[in-house]
Request: fold
Amino acid sequence: MSVLVEVQGLKVYFPVRRFLKTVGVVKAVDGVSVALEKGETLALVGESGCGKTTFGKALLGAVKPFAGKIYFDGQEINSVDDRQLEAIKRRIGAVFQDPYSSLNPMFTIYRIVEEPLVVHGIGSPKDRKETVFKALEDVKLVPAEDFAYKYPHMISGGQRQRVAIARAIISRPEFIVADEPVTMLDASIRVEILLLLREIQRKLGLTMVYITHDIATAKYFSDRIAVMYAGKFVELGPTKDVLKNPSHPYTQALIDAIPDPDPRNRLSFRKVVGGEPPSLINPPSGCRFHPRCPFFMQGKCDASEPPLYSVGPDRFTACFLAEHQS
Ligand SMILES: Nc1ncnc2c1ncn2[C@@H]1O[C@H](COP(=O)(O)OP(=O)(O)OP(=O)(O)O)[C@@H](O)[C@H]1O
Ligand SMILES: [Mg+2]
Reply:
């Protein structure tokens, strides 16, 4: 296997301004490293505001890192020239949370799906027509003629997300960032769309980052999970192992908060873990999870930051409980 995307020590900071003065920085991503093998899907999981979208945007070259490097197929995306960056972007696709606002309401489905080919100057109009119809079939919008000339408001939310996926795969990218692709959809069609994404990922051999706040959905198609808390990865490992045997108390809490099929046994995440997500401007000292952690060790967890300990094959956890295991 070879690595397609490599992130080294990534930090993305945003200035906080009041009355034109910078009064602090939001450390949205604060020192993250990971390497993605070709064909692998990584689920990035964590609470709202922990930095998931910012991480995804950095991978897409849409925000500039404060520090660290991102390599795509060996090229560092923030040190190439504009022409090289365009060539890299052609090889990367994105699917966002809200299929309605990400699709131009004035364009037909045909034009929306064709657009990346036009922007990148791929194929003649005749070739493009064939490619667009094929992409609509790939996402099961069939017969394609029935959908191609409709406008986004004329189709359902699930169908709109299928259009967004068709647009993302049309220029045959090698890497896709899917940021909460099913969050806005009706619960009944979420699994359907996730299974479609998995089918396409396998068929095209795509490398993928699947961003979600819902750890339960990671099991549908990710090979590995990265659990993010306050701008950092706190756990990283194969999906099955992490879900079965989480090694970080935060991951455990996310799993405990997965709704039980029996409503009487349901606990909200807040009840399981308590407290509020931390500020990214003044994060807690030491382990950022320590104020909410049931295993908090005074003088230890608040004094220094736990490194990512190795706790098994391909498994890492940033928790002092694992200090003597590794
Ligand atoms: N352009 C920006 N300028 C300033 N702050 C930003 C910007 N983008 C994101 N942030 C801040 O960075 C932090 C992380 O935001 P991000 O959108 O990456 O979180 P997230 O994990 O995707 O959350 P959600 O689950 O709600 O989508 C938040 O505190 C957010 O307010
Ligand atoms: Mg987000």
